[in-house]
Amino acid sequence: MQKKLDSLPEKFCYLAMQGYSTHGHGRTRPCCFSRMGTNTYMPGVKINDIYEWQHHGNSNANNITEFINDPEVMKLRKQLMDNQVPEGCRSCFELEDQGIRSFRQTWNDIYEDHIDTTLENLTDDGFVDPKAVSYLDITLGNVCNLKCRSCNPWASHRWIEEGPTVPHTDWDKTAYQIAKLSSDDPWFVRAFAEGFFDPVLPNVKVINFIGGEPLVVNEHYDWLEHIVEQGWSQNIELHYNTNATTIPDRLLDIWDKFRGVVLSLSIDAVGDLAYYVRYPSKWRVVEKNVKKLAEFSKTRTGVIVHTHVTLSMLNLHDLPNLLQWCKDQYDSWYYEWEWGNHGYQNCLPHFNIVDHPHWLHIRNLPQEQKDEMNQMLEQQYNKFKNANLPDWEQWAVDNIKNLKNVLNQPADENDWKIFIDNTIASDKFRNINIKDYIPWMGGKI
Length: 445
Hints:
single chain; 18 helices
């Protein structure tokens, strides 16, 4: 397929085209933001033992070429190149329709220089030659040291025990079995040990780690040391989504041998509210680790840190405090070097809107709270619009105002009832009370 960069279809997505991403249980997918299901798994994954009756045709890939070219992913690539919106990509396009910058738009901009290589190795039927893979998106299972309110057993093994006590859930017995398999027998142990990724690593420019919490997974430290020993690390930039509750010194030593490190801090609130929303994180520990990253960034170039906030009914009201915290980090440790910038990179955070579980979506707030949030978002928009931020941060300022488009969608009264029931159940399990952390909930629960 000989398309030029300047003639790309409007729906083009770099991450889907380069085609390498894993679910926490070892299944292929177009990218980490897609909710698409496929039938191709990493070698050794025993998923068929659990739900072959439900998903006929599951198979284990023999090599990386088979893994990235699952038939459903190939079909999705073709749809995008034909300027169609595949069901598996709908989340990004819905955000864009609401004026919120999507993963698709962000990564297309970041990896614009790699797109020509991708197109040269992409056929009309959506098959991608592994030579095109310059970006690996690797989910290191579901082992995590937190169980955030917006999370689930597939992304945090700590939900496996609590989940069945919640009265309203989308997670059935099979889902919990798969989640337990992901934590007890992680797919990546065999893949790392047998060099499954080695054929593409000489061409890889970026490895993105997500979890669970990737920084608590010791096997990935050993794999990074393997990459260093093979001489590939100097050309590779490491990306992480991390909750910033742990930054081991051993990892800093390994990171120093790679071309760069980009950390997306998953921080949904500051102070005591952080403990409730991202339970049981300690804000003082997070701040200590952020300062540790600031010191590390002073020792070398190529270290970039920014913040992602997952917005839900639990934390939208506290957004002004988090926005100010992000701005303070930018003011205190953003650095300009001859070849580029590093340190804390963004004045304002990226927004992820909770859509699953659907009962936490901000559209389900009571109307009186919505009215207050509309005023708050307008105030914050005006505050940062007049804050003399860099030009490259203006899209983030616009995102603040455009959150109103998401907030003011019609609420679902049943979702509010589910929210109440599930909150009471989780609070009881954790021996905490939402009213101690979110005052406006007083009288609601």
